[in-house]
C-alpha cells in the first residue's frame, strides 16, 4: 500500500535532485536581490555607485545560469554539465562576496577605493560648462554609505547574500557529485 504523496514522483523523499534545488534557490535569491536593488534605485532613489553596479554583474549571471542549470537538471542532463553550472554559480557568487567585502571596507574607511568613485573629481571641463554640469551631475561616491540597516550597508548585505548563494551552489555541487 502506498500513500498518495509517495505515488507521485515529485513528492517522493529525495525525488528532487540537489542540482535542481540548488540552482532554483540561487536563481530565486538572485532575482529577488536584483529586484530589491532596482527598488532601492528606482523607487527610493538611492543611486548605486560604480562598485555597486559591478556587484550586480554576478546576479545578472546567476539568474540565467541558475535557470538554465535548473532546466538542465529537470531534464536529466549529464552530471558534468550540472556540475559545471553549479561550480560557475558558486565561484561567481563567492567572487561577488569578495567584491562586496572590498566595497564594505571602502565604506568603513579600512582602505581606499577606486579613484573613479572615491577619489577627487579631476576633470570638470571648461569654465563655461562648469555651472551647467554641476546642476546635472550627481556623483555617487563608493566611500559614502547612503543607507544602513542593523549596521550594515547594501554592500554588506550583498556579502551575506552572495555567501549564501555560494554555499547553496556548493552544496548542490557536492550533493550532485556524490549522487549515484
From TrEMBL:
<protein>
    <submittedName>
        <fullName>Disulfide bond formation protein B</fullName>
    </submittedName>
</protein>
<dbReference type="InterPro" id="IPR024199">
    <property type="entry name" value="Uncharacterised_DsbB"/>
</dbReference>
<dbReference type="GO" id="GO:0016020">
    <property type="term" value="C:membrane"/>
</dbReference>
<keyword id="KW-0472">Membrane</keyword>
<dbReference type="GO" id="GO:0015035">
    <property type="term" value="F:protein-disulfide reductase activity"/>
</dbReference>
<dbReference type="InterPro" id="IPR023380">
    <property type="entry name" value="DsbB-like_sf"/>
</dbReference>
<feature type="transmembrane region" description="Helical">
    <location>
        <begin position="20"/>
        <end position="44"/>
    </location>
</feature>
<feature type="transmembrane region" description="Helical">
    <location>
        <begin position="56"/>
        <end position="73"/>
    </location>
</feature>
<keyword id="KW-1133">Transmembrane helix</keyword>
<feature type="transmembrane region" description="Helical">
    <location>
        <begin position="80"/>
        <end position="102"/>
    </location>
</feature>
<dbReference type="GO" id="GO:0006457">
    <property type="term" value="P:protein folding"/>
</dbReference>
<keyword id="KW-0812">Transmembrane</keyword>
<feature type="transmembrane region" description="Helical">
    <location>
        <begin position="154"/>
        <end position="174"/>
    </location>
</feature>
<dbReference type="Pfam" id="PF02600">
    <property type="entry name" value="DsbB"/>
</dbReference>
<dbReference type="InterPro" id="IPR003752">
    <property type="entry name" value="DiS_bond_form_DsbB/BdbC"/>
</dbReference>
Amino acid at each position: 500500500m502506498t500513500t498518495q504523496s509517495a505515488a507521485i514522483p515529485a513528492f517522493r523523499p529525495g525525488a528532487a535532485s540537489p542540482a535542481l534545488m540548488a540552482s532554483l534557490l540561487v536563481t530565486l535569491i538572485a532575482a529577488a536581490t536584483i529586484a530589491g536593488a532596482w527598488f532601492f534605485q528606482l523607487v527610493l532613489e538611492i543611486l548605486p555607485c560604480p562598485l555597486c553596479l559591478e556587484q550586480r554583474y554576478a546576479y545578472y549571471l546567476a539568474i540565467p545560469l541558475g535557470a538554465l542549470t535548473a532546466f538542465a537538471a529537470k531534464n536529466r542532463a549529464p552530471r558534468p554539465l550540472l556540475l559545471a553550472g553549479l561550480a560557475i554559480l558558486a565561484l561567481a557568487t563567492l567572487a561577488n562576496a569578495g567584491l562586496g567585502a572590498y566595497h564594505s571596507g571602502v565604506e568603513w574607511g579600512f582602505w581606499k577605493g577606486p579613484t573613479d568613485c572615491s577619489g577627487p573629481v579631476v576633470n570638470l571641463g571648461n569654465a563655461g560648462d562648469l555651472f551647467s554640469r554641476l546642476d546635472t551631475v550627481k556623483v555617487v561616491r563608493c566611500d559614502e554609505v547612503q543607507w544602513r540597516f542593523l549596521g550594515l550597508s547594501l554592500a554588506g548585505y550583498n556579502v551575506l547574500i552572495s555567501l549564501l548563494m555560494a554555499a547553496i551552489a556548493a552544496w548542490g555541487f557536492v550533493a550532485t557529485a556524490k549522487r549515484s
